[in-house]
Design brief:
By secondary structure, this protein is mainly α. The protein has one domain. Helices cover 47% and strands 3% of the residues. The protein contains five helices and two strands. The protein has a two-stranded antiparallel sheet. Strand 1 and strand 2 form a beta hairpin. The termini are far apart. The N terminus is likely disordered.
Length: 126
């Protein structure tokens, strides 16, 4: 029975990946260039404050999170680094595409801002 489960899981995971890709959510392929100067101080903190932390803040509870999962918080660098791949997949931009699923309402980042976000995340969110 265990042998039959693995192929089924592979098919289901593959189908899930296709569904997610169809929704515009996926890895952007961004990399960290040697000359990157983006830091939390000159980019990350402002970006997250402007576009993310109205829902993804550890200070928000219940309905104030507007459906953001509990514990998925971007008001600390540790939280951002832990979720970097997911942030990129939902909000970043790079050579493989642009993800615009987040934020779902309100002000939206420009493509250039999304590219900077992905670069900053690829560099480890310094």
């Amino acid at each position: 029975m265990a042998r039959r489960v693995r192929p089924l899981l592979s098919v289901l995971c593959g189908a899930s990946a296709l569904v997610i890709a169809g929704c515009g959510v996926g890895a952007t392929g961004a990399t960290c260039p040697e000359e990157s100067t983006l830091t939390a101080q000159n980019f990350g903190t402002e970006f997250l404050g402007k576009y993310c932390n109205s829902c993804h803040s550890s200070t928000l509870k219940g309905s104030a999170r507007q459906n953001a999962p509990a514990g998925v918080d971007f008001d600390t660098l540790a939280g951002v680094r832990e979720e970097a791949k997911e942030i990129d997949a939902w909000s970043g931009a790079g050579p493989n595409g642009e993800n615009t699923a987040m934020p779902p309402n309100g002000a939206s980042p420009t493509t250039e801002e999304r590219k900077k976000l992905s670069e900053w995340l690829a560099c480890g969110a310094p």
